[in-house]
Structure formats: structure tokens, C-alpha cells
Amino acid sequence: MSITVLGIESSCDDTSAAVITDGVIRSNIIANQDVHRKYGGVVPELASRAHQQNIVPVVELAIREAGISKKEVSAISFTRGPGLMGSLLVGTSFAKGFALARNIPLIEVNHLKAHILVHFIREKDVEPQFPVFPFICLLVSGGHTQLVLVKDHLDMEVLGQTIDDAAGEAFDKCAKIMGIPYPGGPLIDRYSKDGDPLAFRFPEPSVAGFDFSFSGLKTSFLYFLREKRKEDSGFIENNLNDLCASLQKTIVGILVDNLIRVSKQTGITEVALAGGVAANSALRLAVKDLEDRRGWRVFLPKPAYTTDNAAMIAITGYYKYLKSEFSSQDIVPEARFSFNT
Q1: Which superfamily is assigned to 135-303 in CATH?
Q2: What is the pLDDT of residues 285-331, one digit of tens each?
Q3: What is the torsional sign of CA 116, 117, 123, 129?
Q4: Segments of 32-134 assigned E as strands
Q5: DSSP state of 132
Q6: Domain range list for the chain
Q7: Tens digits of per-residue pLDDT, 236-275?
Q8: Would you say the CATH fold of 135-303 matches that of 4-127+305-322?
Q9: Which CATH class is domain 4-127+305-322?
Q10: What H or E segment, with its residue span, contains residue 173?
Q11: Coil, strand or helix: which one is 29?
């Protein structure tokens, strides 16, 4: 008997619903919220209100595009956390109501682990290429930067993480300093293509173990621009592409150096990227280059699966369904949901 999971993602500002049957993706619908651009970042209250408006039509479209009826849904999985509490409440409440109305299992999902499991989404008539356990995943997003040892679909261990800002946060904050609109990370990537990554040098912090730190880089970048603008008020505008390329090279270098070190220490050469920053072209090229130089097997997620999406929630729900890991109706969202939960 087929297992069809409806996934709901509402951790931040994207409302998404997806349908997966026996691990095969059938639909993945995402409604973005452009309202936040003029504020330079996500406004939690506006995000939760938009989720309330979007969730019903998004779910209906996902079910229709999948070519199924609501009666065929075996279970519903949802993001329990981490994320914005107001946003999480919308998705959690909808999922609980849907599960109760259809009398089907309810499955909570850890947003961070779900990012990693996008590597196990199958597509119809496409031969799958999955990482072999155990593998190392560099999970990089706007709110999180972690090196994760993936032992099985649902058994993961954090080996290193940021002690302050995440890599995506560093991109966005430095972009704001340069006057680049939100979200700044993708724009830095775009401008970098026409810049010289060796034009400027920025410090790379030294952190014990496999942890990361980007707060010092952000501060030094701010002070650097402050001094340069005293000499030339148009310094940023005149050097924007080079600044973006040099900053990107520094951040990618920090990420890749730690990835190399953890691979050396563990002896694991199966390596994957996940999270929003996994769409960054320089990071993808740098990690892919190591496949040949170090004999790694590298797995890069499709760009559509790097951002917050419900396909990752549905595939995680599918694997939890196989182990009968269901939730009760008294489940509540957790804004600071632990990775190990």
C-alpha cells in the first residue's frame, strides 16, 4: 500500500505545501512574502498573518497538482521548529486540524534535519543518487551553520556549529552595510561574478574544534568600509563587485576549511550541502572542486530544495512514518527547537 505524505512548512516567511508518495515528489508549492523587502528583514507579525492567508490555497494547489484527493493522504507532517513562533503556530494548527479531520497520523519535523533529507527525495523516472551512510553534511542557512554527521535518515549528530552569527546572516548583514537590499546573500553572489575575489582580504577567525564564527568578520568588514569611506565617500559604489567577491571568498573559505578538517578527522568522504546558502555558486563550486582533488563523493541539492520548502518536510515525514514516529494532538511548536530533539 502506498504511503502519501502531505508536508507543511511555515517556519519563517515562506508558506509551502508538498506531496510525496513512497519517497517520490509529486508537488511542491511555495508562496513567498515580498512584503518584508521594504523592511530589510522578516517582520514576524506580518509573516504570521501572510501564512494565515496563504496556507489553505497553497495546500489545495499542492494536492491538486499532485493529482490526488485528500482521502489519499496517509499522514501530514509539519515543521515544529525552529523558527518564528507566530509562523510555526499557523502551520502546526493547520496540520493538527487536517490530521484530526481526516483521522490520519500527525508527524512533527525538525526543520534543520529536514534540510538534510532533501538528498533523499526521489523524482519520477529518474535514477536516484543518494549519499551513503555515514556522510557529512554542511548545513548552511540564514539562521544556522552546522557540520552534521548523518548516520541514518533519522540519526544525526552535530560535530560543529556557529558560536554567533550564521553564514547566511553574515552575508545579509554585510550586504546591508553596503546598502544592498534584503535578502542580500543572493545579490552578493550575483555581484561577485563580476568582481575580483583577491581585491581585498578580510580576517578569518580561529575557533576551536569544528565550530564557526562570523560575528568578527562582520565587524571587521564594517570598520574596513568605515575607514575607506573616510578617504573616498564613493568607495562602496566604486568597488561593489570586488567587495562582494572578496567577502564571499572569505566566507566560503571558512566553511570549506572546516569541512575539509572534519572529513580528514572522521575519514568520511561522502559529503553533502544543505540549506539556503547551499545555493551560493561559489560554495557549490568550491565543494564540487574537492570531489576531484580529494576523492570525495559530493551531493549538491537542487536550488529549489535549498530554500525553505515543504518537500523536505514531506520526505522527513515519510521516513518517520516508516518507523511509526507519530505525534499527539497536544503537540506545540518550539521556536528554539533543538537539533537533537
Answers
A1: ATPase, nucleotide binding domain (3.30.420.40)
A2: 999 999 989 999 999 999 999 999 999 999 999 999 999 999 999 99
A3: positive
A4: 75-81, 106-110
A5: P
A6: 4-127+305-322, 135-303
A7: 999 999 999 999 999 999 999 999 999 999 999 999 999 9
A8: yes
A9: alpha beta
A10: helix 167-177
A11: strand
